[in-house]
Amino acid sequence: MAKFIVSPKLLRLKPRLTPIVSLPSSHFLHYHFPKPTSSSSTASLPQTLPTSYSLPPKPVSPLNTAATFNNVILDPRHLSCCMPDKRLKVAVLLSGGVDSSVALRLLHAAGHSCTPFYLKIWFQEDFENYWTECPWEEDLKYARAVCDQVDVSLQVVHLTDEYWNNVVSYIIEDYRCGRTPNPDVLCNTRIKFGAFMDAIYNMDYDYIASGHYANVVHPSADQSNKASILELSQDMVKDQTYFLSHLSQFQLKQLIFPLGCLSKDEVRQLAAKFDLPNKGRKDSQGICFLGKIRFSDFVARHIGEMEGIILEAETGDFLGKHRGFWFYTIGQRQGLRLPGGPWYAI
């Protein structure tokens, strides 16, 4: 597929005749992020953590029979991605959304000792636009309410600097060069299962869990030298393995995804059965670090604008002007503001 031409002031377009099916992964992704190398971290964890992180583990029924948890009947399959045959100490990433909340409740129902963690990564609270509400305050409120239901204490971890240095600044520089990195791939690799994993390195958790729609198959104890395998979830619409595809073996071997065996509809049903305080909350959309800010405003603030011309790809005809090539990406149609289309960027 053709890319942007070298001159930063020219943007070539074609009429939209056939759908864009895929783009090369090298256009989106960055391959390497170092493994955690030390027990120390610049992340701000609470000064003291309780020695007991949850209520005592509760026994659960064998997988061939239904289990009842807090008067909620759970199908054995609901717990099948939670390692219910073990009793584990699990760090659970809790966002305030429905998915991670159901993941916490399933792990708790499986009898594990769970410590929920909320990652505060918002980095720019002085942004002028769309700042009538803090994007994280409502999330944190719901996360605490979910924890209160099962009497576990929520820990807040501040990873603002790590997020800026390892994700946001990288994205800014890539856009400045005309590339289109994927923020969620970077966030998972470098923050959720990178800086956070490093921050709790000495806390002796068996696994880290999240509400991602994915599954990890771990080797048996007597084959620990073999690889852990990232597999597709049951819900092919919500599946998030693409966004986890750059995790290393070091990272994968420490992860559980309780929702990997469930569909989104089943997760919503479980949220209602558990009577979660956020059971009716809509799924979050958009880029993880922006909150209510439009991405074009974010790019304009950090990179600025540079006017250039738009050409029709096959004929070279002049079509109009653009604000800067970093506002566009291959396959893009939205925001071109040209008559006679639809057009898309090549």
Describe this structure in words.
The termini are close together. The protein has a 5-stranded parallel sheet with strand order 6-5-4-7-10, with helices on both faces. It contains 7 helices and 13 strands. Helix content is 24%, strand content 15%. Mean pLDDT is 80; it is low at 1-8, 16-65 and 127-133. The chain is of the alpha/beta class and 346 residues long. It folds into 2 domains: 85-296, HUPs (Rossmann fold, 3-Layer(aba) Sandwich), CATH 3.40.50; 305-345, no CATH class. α1 packs across α6 and α3 (160-176) packs antiparallel against α4.
Task: Write a brief structural summary.
The longest helix has 17 residues, at 160-176. With 346 residues, the chain is of the alpha/beta class.
Please specify the SSE layout and strand pairing.
Layout: E1 10-15, E2 67-69, E3 72-74, E4 89-93, H1 98-109, E5 113-120, H2 137-149, E6 155-158, H3 160-176, H4 183-199, E7 207-209, E8 215-217, E9 229-231, H5 249-252, E10 255-256, H6 264-273, H7 295-303, E11 308-312, E12 318-322, E13 343-345
Helix pairs in contact: 1-6, 3-4
